[in-house]
Each structure stands twice: as C-alpha cells, then as structure tokens.
Design brief:
CATH class: Alpha Beta
Structural class: alpha+beta
Distance between the termini: 26 Å
Number of domains: 1
Shape: globular
Strand order of the largest sheet: 1-7-6-5-4-3-2
Radius of gyration: 15 Å
Strand content: 35-45%
Helix content: 25-40%
Number of strands: 7
CATH superfamily: START domain
CATH architecture: 2-Layer Sandwich
CATH topology: Alpha-D-Glucose-1,6-Bisphosphate, Chain A, domain 4
Length: about 160
C-alpha cells in the first residue's frame, strides 16, 4: 500500500489466482484497446504510440466520460501503473504479478486516490471497485488463460 494512503479510505485492492501465464496477463494489460473486453469500467481505451513509461492515453468509461492517463510505472512483465486525471484528483491504478508457482499466477489490481478532491471520489470509486473488481479480474484471467500466447501477442510484447 502506498505510504500516503489511509487504510480503508483511499486504497482499494483485489487479488486473484489463475492458470494463465504472467506473460498472457501482461499481454492484456499493455493492450489498452482491449481493456473494455475484460473491464466493466472501460468502454474504450487508447494509448498514443507504444505502451511505455510516459505514454499517454485516454480511458472512456461506460458512460462515455473520458479520462486522460499517463503510464507512470512500468516494470516489464511484472507491474505497471497508470495515473488517470479526475476533476481535482488523480486515480492511480496498479496491476501487478505477485507470484507464479506450479502453473498458477497470482495477480493484484489496486487503485488509490491522490489530490485535494480525493475524498470526494472515495465513495463512488469504492463502490465501483468493490462491486466490479472481482468479476473484472476473473474475466481477465479467463481471457488470458483461453488466449495463451500466440504470434499476435508475441508481436505486441516485442516492442514494449
């Protein structure tokens, strides 16, 4: 948990385990246009150029609202963070592989709020995260496990 957050107020996380490989999960995480395939939060997403540290993009939520984001952390094949701009606050979303043993991968999605209006965003984001994180991550695990790593994925991963 980031050191500046208040447990239970600003920080949300969910952990899942899947038989999908870390590489398969990574392929979905860095392919912004596919985020809506597994995330109920996103109707569409795009990134300018390659998905790399400092890349900028836009997430369109299911209501059509656009939130610009920047890739603020990228540890290739392990973890990534994006920071999305909200009015008066920043939503930081982290996706991380936390373990891989005996053909099982454990991964975590977490989010936290920063900025002067963070407290105003807590309740709606907590409700969305708590109601959707589990099903979103299970959908991602299913898609990653079902897709495997094929030539298209290797091609996308090769230029990260």
């Amino acid at each position: 948990m980031p050191p500046f957050t208040t447990p239970g107020l600003d920080y949300f996380e969910h952990v899942e385990t899947t038989s999908a490989s870390p590489l398969a999960l990574w392929a979905w995480w860095v392919d912004a246009p596919t985020w809506g395939d597994w995330s109920g939060w996103s109707r569409g997403s795009s990134v300018q150029g390659l998905f790399a540290l400092g890349s900028q993009g836009v997430v369109v939520d299911r209501f059509g609202r656009k939130a610009p984001f920047t890739v603020t952390h990228l540890d290739r094949f392990r973890s990534m963070e994006i920071a999305a701009s909200l009015p008066g606050a920043t939503l930081v979303v982290r996706r991380e592989i936390v373990g891989h043993t005996e053909g099982m991968t454990t991964f975590c999605h977490s989010a936290w709020l920063e900025g002067p209006a963070a407290r105003l965003w807590r309740r709606p984001l907590r409700q969305r995260f708590s109601s959707e994180a589990k099903s979103n991550m299970r959908r991602l695990a299913y898609l990653a496990d079902d897709s495997g790593i094929n030539g298209r994925d290797r091609e996308r991963l090769g230029h990260i």
